[in-house]
Write a structure and sequence with these properties.
By secondary structure, the chain is mainly alpha-helical. Among the domains are: 109 residues, Rna Polymerase Sigma Factor, Chain: A; 71 residues, Arc Repressor Mutant, subunit A (Orthogonal Bundle). The protein is built from 9 helices and no strands. Helix 3 packs across helix 5 and helix 4 packs across helix 5.
């Protein structure tokens, strides 16, 4: 008797059905519940537990990188100090290349200090030149152990600025003294001549006796008593002639000035 006919071979196991399938699902749920309970019962790591070795090495690298710029800055400052000390020694020994290097490095500072105190760019340039000339001449008195070269140049700058201010004050005082000794400007000769001609014209309009009295007073510069003796007139008459004539002359001159 032939059995049931076999189906094609697919390579997959037949899926259980009915009670067998329900039992497998129950088993999987039970395993999941056991895993969850084991996870909840597992103790949490301590807060102060040491980090893994890889994390510690990474933190050390970060700290080293952060400290590296400060180390570089210190190294640069140390190198600059060595260069400046060598420049100062060469400057004191009379090396002209050290003078050129010092001028290139500090001339701007010297010029700024001079300009701030004097307010004149040309005076500031003169002071800058004088500072380095004076520093070069007195270089044998410079002691690198007592002061840095830049500080020593700043000290010379202050002295040169003070000398420039004092020279400016002396020049101003000399100008004021010279101006005080100058004579006052003379009156315009043309104006004096015109006034003399006008007075002479007004005197010619007077009566003969007052005219003679006024001419002696104006041109001979005689006193009232001398005029009275010269003309044989009473002193009171001479004074009256002069008073009335001066009044007329004053009035005529004011009228003539008003017409010009």
């Amino acid at each position: 008797m032939l059995g049931p006919k076999a189906g094609p071979a697919t390579g997959r196991r037949p899926r259980p059905s009915g009670p067998a399938r329900d039992g497998a699902a129950t088993t999987r749920r039970q395993r999941s519940d056991v895993t969850d309970r084991e996870t909840e019962d597992r103790p949490a790591p301590a807060a102060d537990a040491a980090p893994p070795a890889d994390t510690a090495r990474s933190s050390d690298a970060v700290r080293s990188a952060a400290a590296r710029p400060a180390d570089l800055a210190d190294a640069e400052r140390a190198a600059a100090a060595i260069v400046e000390a060598a420049m100062a020694e060469s400057f004191r020994d009379g090396d002209e290349s050290a003078l050129a290097a010092a001028y290139a490095r500090w001339s701007a500072l010297v010029h700024t200090l001079a300009l701030r105190s004097l307010g004149d760019p040309r005076d500031a340039e003169d002071v800058t030149q004088k500072v380095f000339v004076e520093a070069w001449r007195s270089r044998t008195r410079y002691d690198p152990l007592r002061a840095q070269l830049g500080a020593w140049l700043v000290g010379i700058t202050r002295h040169c600025i003070a000398d420039a201010l004092e020279a400016r004050s002396r020049a101003r005082r000399a100008e004021e003294a010279h101006a005080a000794q100058l004579p006052l400007p003379e009156e315009d000769a043309t104006a004096r001549l015109a006034e003399s001609l006008q007075v002479a014209d007004e005197l010619a309009r007077l009566a003969p006796e007052p005219q003679r009295v006024m001419r002696l007073a104006f041109y001979a510069d005689l006193t009232h008593a001398q005029i009275a003796d010269r003309l044989g007139l009473p002193l009171g008459t001479v004074k009256s002639h002069i008073r009335r004539s001066l009044g007329r002359l004053r009035t005529r001159l004011e009228v003539n000035d008003g017409t010009h």
